[in-house]
């Protein structure tokens, strides 16, 4: 995939003086300037069902797609639905439940649904293309963290493990409810708090897991993580210990071994830190003197982030886990 993106990056269609963020840095969304004080933020995301309840799938898909705009410091405005549906084997009534659940989350986010596209597909998939706005000089990127910045995460991790447990029928109602509530929760408040605190960098934690997305932030800096400070969803560690582990999580861990020093941490902790997330929280680099205001602002918004480490000048490009 990296080779494909490098080929695209050399084409004229991917270059423009007003393209502020494109393929180059594995950012969460593209940013295109349309005036000195206004830029568009554009992103797209869709996936197969990760929970059994159709409406919850729709809610999670909407929150997940919106998250990319919040991670860039932007405000989402409009949404286009993307639907792949096996029309001959799965009722359109089920699709209706998916659409209603998604619309509920869009309404909370004050995002307008303007249309979409559907195709017949043997495997159901659902998601959105989202367009938002941001000031060109206040774009949050996944690079820009500085030595001494605090590393903050705004949601617990473990959704991949719990989603796999749901598919295997080995998850309690309480564990399922906690994971679904986390995935449905919007990152709007976290995004606003990051902008207000003048965060150095930010990204959202999704398919590459905490370690993978943190690794993308390590441009000229290293990072240290206190594994015991990382919030984890109820039941996630137990599922990892029982071998209920997504294939994506195992691949993430294999990849992370190339840039992560785990020290004496156990295998379960390593798997949790690498767990492939859906609609995870924001991972934010906050200057040390602004950590207090950031945390206070998040608490006022009824979101409770965790400081899980810091960025360092030592070992650039690598993560140290203690």
Provide a brief overview of the structure:
This protein has 322 residues and is an alpha+beta fold. It has eleven helices and 13 strands.
Can you walk me through this structure?
The structure is a single chain. The chain has eleven helices and 13 strands. The protein has 322 residues and is of the alpha+beta class. It has two domains: 137 residues, 60s Ribosomal Protein L30, Chain: A (2-Layer Sandwich), CATH 3.30.1330.10; 172 residues, Phosphoribosyl-aminoimidazole Synthetase, Chain A, domain 2 (Alpha-Beta Complex), CATH 3.90.650.10. Strands 8-11-7-12-9-13-10 form a seven-stranded mixed sheet, with helices on both faces. A six-stranded mixed sheet has the order 1-2-3-6-4-5, with helices on one face. α7 packs parallel to α9. The chain is globular, with a radius of gyration of 19 Å. The mean pLDDT is 94.
Number of strands: 13
The number of helical elements comes to: 11
The name CATH uses for the topology of the largest domain is Phosphoribosyl-aminoimidazole Synthetase, Chain A, domain 2
Number of domains: 2
Mean pLDDT: 94
CATH superfamily of the largest domain: PurM-like C-terminal domain
Helix proportion range = 25-40%
Outline:
globular
Unreliably modeled segments: none
Q: End-to-end distance, in Å? A: 32 Å
Largest sheet: 7 strands, mixed
Supply the helix-strand structural class. Answer: alpha+beta
CATH C-level class of the largest domain: Alpha Beta
């Amino acid at each position: 995939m990296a080779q494909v993106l490098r080929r695209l990056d050399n084409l004229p269609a991917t270059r423009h003086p007003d393209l502020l963020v494109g393929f180059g840095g594995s950012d969460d969304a593209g940013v295109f300037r349309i005036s000195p004080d206004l830029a568009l933020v554009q992103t797209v995301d869709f996936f197969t069902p990760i929970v059994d309840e159709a409406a919850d799938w729709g809610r999670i898909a909407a929150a997940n797609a919106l998250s990319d705009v919040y991670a860039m410091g932007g405000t989402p405005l409009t949404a286009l639905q993307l639907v792949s549906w096996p029309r001959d084997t799965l009722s359109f009534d089920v699709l209706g439940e998916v659409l209603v659940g998604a619309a509920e989350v869009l309404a909370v986010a004050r995002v307008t649904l303007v249309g979409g596209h559907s195709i017949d597909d043997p495997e159901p998939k659902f998601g959105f293309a989202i367009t938002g706005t941001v000031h060109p000089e206040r774009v949050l990127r996944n690079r820009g963290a500085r030595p001494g910045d605090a590393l903050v995460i705004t949601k617990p991790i473990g959704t991949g493990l719990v989603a796999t447990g749901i598919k295997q029928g080995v998850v309690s109602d309480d564990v399922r409810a906690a994971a679904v509530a986390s995935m449905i929760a919007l990152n709007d408040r976290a995004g606003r708090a990051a902008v207000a605190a003048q965060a150095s960098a930010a990204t959202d934690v999704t398919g590459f897991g905490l370690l993978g997305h943190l690794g993308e932030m390590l441009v000229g800096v290293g990072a240290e993580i206190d594994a015991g400070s990382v919030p984890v969803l109820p039941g996630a560690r137990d599922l990892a210990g029982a071998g209920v582990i997504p294939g994506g999580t195992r691949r993430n861990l294999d990849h992370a071994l190339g840039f992560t020093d785990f020290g004496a941490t156990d295998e379960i902790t390593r798997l949790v830190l690498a767990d492939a997330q859906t609609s995870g929280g924001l991972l934010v680099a906050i200057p040390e003197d602004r950590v207090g205001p950031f945390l206070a602002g998040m608490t006022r918004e009824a979101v409770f982030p965790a400081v899980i480490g810091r960025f360092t000048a030592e070992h650039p490009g690598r993560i140290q886990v203690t």
